[in-house]
Automatic annotation (TrEMBL):
SUPFAM superfamilies reported for this sequence: ACP-like, NAD(P)-binding Rossmann-fold domains
InterPro entries noted in UniProt: ACP-like_sf, FAR_NAD-bd, NAD(P)-bd_dom_sf, PKS_PP-bd, PP-bd_ACP, Sc_DH/Rdtase_CS, Thioester_reductase-like_dom
The name this protein goes by in its record: Unannotated protein
Organism classification: unclassified sequences, metagenomes, ecological metagenomes
GO molecular function, one term: phosphopantetheine binding
NCBIfam families listed in its UniProt record: Thioester-redct
Entry-linked SMART domains: PKS_PP
Domain Carrier: 165-240
Xref: CDD domains: SDR_e1
Keywords: Phosphopantetheine, Phosphoprotein
C-alpha cells in the first residue's frame, strides 16, 4: 500500500509476491525482476509475469536504448534488439544462479519505459503490478498461447518423423521442447539438470524420445552427471542399430508390458535379463569366506561413501582392493566425485586419504548394459571381484517404477550377471524398508515374511521406488535359488546424519528439510502424531539411524560370510518414546524458540504459508515441495516390523552390541551441521 494522503491508501502490490507454478515451484516475480534489472545495464525495466496454470514465466522488457544502440548501432531491427536482450537475460540468470523456471522463457519488448505518468510506477518509483497486469496481461497470455502452439507444432513435427533431421538435431529439438530453451549448443557437455531440468522433466523427455525414436532412454541416463545431447544421441543410435536377433537391453515395457500397473514376480525371470551364454557358463565355485576385492556401487551417495570407508579399512587389513563404480566421464573424474563427497571434516578427509592405496575407481553407469564398462574392465572385474556391495540406486520418491526400472532393476540384474561370471561372488544389497508394504503378512511381519508375488503400482508417493526395490529383491532371490549366489539384503529406513563428522548430512532428504523448516519458521504442531485420548501427546517413536552405524553394520554383517539368503530389517527398533515431538523439544533446548500450533490442520496451513514466504534460497531447502507426507498426523502406534535377525547379528558384531537410540545431543549435532552448510544464521 502507498499513502497518498490522510486516510487515502492505494494498493501497490502484494507484500510477498509469491506464485506457485504448474509443477509446484514457488517463484517471487518481483524479486526475479529486480535480479534482472540489477544484473544487466541493458535491461532498464522488466515486468515478470506468471500464471499458475503454466510451468514457466514470461515478461515485458524495457531496454536501455542508449546502450542497445551502442551495442548494435542506431536503428537496429526489433529482431536484433530482442536477440540481444534474450542473451542478456540468459547471462544474467546464470550469473545470479536463478533456476530454469525463474528465467522468462519468452518476452515482449516495450520501448516506452514504465513511469508514474503512464500509471505503471508509483510516486516512489515502485512498480504498480495491478496496472502492469491490466496493461500487458492479455498480450502476455497471448504469448503463452503462441508458445504452446509452437511447442505443439514442434512436437508434431518430431513425432511425424518428417523433418529429415539427424539424431543429434532431433534430440536437441526434443530437449528444447521439454525445457523451453531454443538456442542449445549441440556440443555442450552440460546435462539435463545443468540446463534447468528436474526428475519430472526427465521423465517427460524420456517419453518424448521414445515417441520420436521408438527406443528407451532411461531417466537415470538423462539425469546422469555425464549426460549430454551427444551421449543421449549415441545411446539412441546404438539402440537403433540393433538388428533382429541381437541382444537387447531389458526395458520396463519388455518385461512388464507398456503401461503396466500390475507387476508380477514371474515377469522378473532371470532368463529375461541374462545372456544365455552367461547362464550356460555360470560359475559354480563358492566365493571365499574372506573377501579381498569388493566392487561397490553408489559410492558417492550418502550411505555409499561410508560403505567405501568401511570396506577400505577392511581391505587395508588383508591387502585387498575396493573398486568403486562411479558415474563419471572417466576414472579421474570419478575419484574427484568420491573425494568431494567425503570432504568437509579434516578427520574424515585424513581417514580417506590414508586408505586410497586400496582404492580403484572405474567410470560406469548402472543404467547401461554391462554397467557401462568396456569389455576389458568388465572381464577384469568378473575374474577378480569376490563381493559386490550394492547400495547404488536412483533414489527418487516421486518417479514411477517405469522410470526407475533401468538403474534399480535392470542394473541389479546386470550385477547378478557379473556375480556368476568368471567366479561366483557374494552380493550385499541395500534395499528399503518400504518393501515391507509388499510382504505377505499372513504368517507374520518380519524378516522371513515372503514377498508378494504380485503388486500394484500407481502414482502415490514412494510407491515406484519401493516397487523397484521389491523387484531387485525378487531378482536376487532367484539368483540365489538358481545359481547359489550368497545374498544379504539390508532394508534400511531413514538414514540420518553422521554422529561425528562435521557437515555429513544428506542435505535434500526429507528429515533435513523438515529440521531446517521447523527451525526457520519456528512453528511446530502440538504433536506430529494422533493425540492420546486425553488430548495430550501420545507415546510415539521415530525410526531413523545414523548413517555411520548403518554403514558399519552392513559391512560387519556382510563380512560374516555365509552361503544363504539373509534379510535384515535395519531399523531403530527401540520402543523408547523418542519421536518427532521429542525433536521439537530438543530444537528448543538448542536455543531456537518454537511455537506449537494446537491443531495439525492449522499448523500445516500456517507452516506452508511461512515456507512460501521464505527467501528463495531458504525456500528451495525447505519442506515446501514435499509437504504431502506431513499433511496428516502419523499414527502413534509404531508399525513394529520384526527385526530379530538384525538385532541378534548386531549384538555379535563389532558395531554392536546395541543399536543406537536417538538423543538430544545427537540432534544438536545435526543442527550444527546445518550451520556448517550455511543453512542457519541464528540460534
Amino acid at each position: 500500500m502507498e499513502e497518498h494522503g490522510p486516510d487515502h491508501l492505494v494498493f501497490i502490490d502484494r507484500r510477498n509476491d509469491v506464485m506457485k507454478l504448474a509443477q509446484g515451484e514457488f517463484v517471487t516475480c518481483g524479486a526475479v525482476g529486480t535480479t534482472f534489472e540489477n544484473g544487466s545495464d541493458l535491461i532498464l525495466q522488466i515486468y515478470v509475469y506468471g500464471n499458475g496454470a503454466r510451468s514457466y514465466l514470461v515478461a515485458i522488457v524495457v531496454p536501455n536504448m542508449v546502450l542497445v544502440d551502442a551495442a548494435l548501432g542506431s536503428g537496429a531491427s526489433p529482431e536484433a534488439v530482442k536477440a540481444l536482450l534474450r542473451s542478456e537475460i540468459k547471462r544474467t540468470g546464470a550469473d545470479a544462479g536463478l533456476r530454469s523456471f525463474e528465467i522468462p522463457r519468452d518476452f515482449l519488448v516495450e520501448y516506452e519505459p514504465f513511469s508514474h505518468a503512464n500509471g505503471l510506477l508509483s510516486s516512489i518509483e515502485k512498480k504498480m503490478r495491478p496496472n502492469l497486469q491490466r496493461r500487458y496481461g492479455d498480450a502476455l497470455e497471448q504469448l503463452y498461447t503462441d508458445l504452446e502452439q509452437r511447442q505443439h507444432d514442434e512436437l508434431m513435427a518430431l513425432r511425424s518423423g518428417s523433418s529429415g533431421d539427424d539424431v543429434v538435431t532431433k534430440v536437441s529439438k526434443a530437449l528444447a521442447v521439454c525445457i523451453g530453451v531454443h538456442d542449445l549448443d549441440l556440443t555442450s557437455p552440460h546435462g539435463f539438470a545443468a540446463l534447468g531440468g528436474d526428475s519430472l522433466g526427465a521423465a517427460e523427455f524420456a517419453a518424448l524420445l521414445h515417441d520420436v525414436f521408438g527406443v528407451e532412454v532411461p531417466v537415470s541416463a538423462i539425469l546422469s552427471p555425464t549426460g549430454s545431447i551427444a551421449r543421449w544421441s549415441a545411446q539412441i543410435e546404438r539402440s537403433l542399430a540393433i538388428r533382429e536377433g541381437d541382444a537387447v537391453a531389458p526395458t520396463f515395457a519388455g518385461i512388464h508390458g507398456r503401461g503396466a500397473r500390475t507387476l508380477r514376480a514371474d515377469h522378473l525371470a532371470l532368463e529375461h535379463f541374462l545372456d544365455p551364454a552367461v547362464v550356460a557358463a555360470a560359475a559354480s565355485d563358492n566365493p571365499p569366506q574372506q573377501s579381498r576385492h569388493v566392487l561397490l556401487t553408489g559410492s558417492t551417495g550418502f550411505l555409499g561413501r561410508f560403505l567405501a570407508i568401511e570396506w577400505l579399512e577392511r581391505m587395508e587389513k588383508v591387502g585387498g582392493t575396493v573398486t568403486c563404480l562411479v558415474r563419471a566421464a572417466d576414472p579421474d573424474a570419478g575419484r574427484r566425485r568420491l573425494t568431494a563427497a567425503l570432504a568437509g571434516d579434516p578427520e574424515l578427509e585424513a581417514r580417506f586419504e590414508r586408505l586410497t592405496a586400496h582404492l580403484y575407481v572405474v567410470a560406469g553407469d548402472m543404467a547401461e548394459p554391462h554397467l557401462g564398462l568396456d569389455d576389458a574392465t568388465y572381464k577384469r572385474l568378473a575374474d577378480s571381484v569376490d563381493r559386490i556391495v550394492h547400495p547404488g540406486a536412483l533414489v527418487n520418491h516421486i518417479l514411477d517404477y517405469e522410470h526407475l526400472f533401468g538403474p534399480n532393476v535392470a542394473g541389479t540384474a546386470d550385477l547378478i550377471s557379473l556375480a556368476i561370471t568368471g567366479r561366483r561372488k557374494r552380493i550385499d544389497f541395500v534395499s528399503s524398508l518400504a518393501v515391507t508394504a509388499f510382504l505377505d503378512r499372513s504368517q507374520g511381519y518380519d524378516e522371513d515374511s515372503p514377498l508378494l508375488p504380485e503388486i500394484e503400482v500407481g502414482g502415490a508417493y514412494n510407491v515406484g521406488y519401493a516397487a523397484s526395490k521389491w523387484a531387485g529383491e525378487i531378482l536376487l532371490q532367484k539368483a540365489h535359488e538358481q545359481f547359489g549366489v550368497p545374498v544379504n539384503v539390508f532394508r534400511g529406513d531413514m538414514m540420518l546424519p553422521h554422529t561425528r563428522y562435521v557437515g555429513q548430512i544428506n542435505v535434500p532428504d526429507i528429515f533435513i528439510r523438515m529440521l531446517f523448516s521447523l527451525i526457520t519458521t519456528g512453528l511446530a504442531p502440538h504433536s506430529f502424531y494422533e493425540l492420546a485420548p486425553d488430548g495430550g501427546r501420545a507415546r510415539a517413536h521415530y525410526d531413523g539411524l545414523p548413517v555411520d552405524f548403518i554403514a558399519a553394520s552392513v559391512a560387519d554383517l556382510g563380512e560374516h560370510s555365509h552361503d544363504g539368503y539373509h534379510v535384515y530389517n535395519t531399523i531403530n527398533h527401540h520402543d523408547d518414546g523418542l519421536s518427532l515431538d521429542s525433536m521439537v523439544d530438543w530444537i528448543e533446548s538448542a536455543g531456537f524458540p518454537m511455537t506449537r500450533v494446537a491443531t495439525h490442520t492449522d499448523w500445516v496451513e500456517q507452516f506452508e504459508l511461512r515456507l512460501k514466504a521464505l527467501p528463495e534460497r531458504q525456500r528451495v531447502q525447505s519442506s515446501v515441495l514435499v509437504l504431502d507426507p506431513w499433511r496428516r498426523p502419523f499414527k502413534s502406534s509404531w508399525r513394529n516390523v520384526g527385526s530379530a535377525r538384525y538385532i541378534a547379528a548386531v549384538a555379535a558384531a563389532p558395531c554392536g552390541p546395541e543399536i543406537p537410540q536417538l538423543s538430544e545431543a545427537y540432534l544438536h549435532k545435526c543442527i550444527r551441521d546445518l550451520r556448517t552448510h550455511d543453512l542457519l544464521t541464528t540460534g
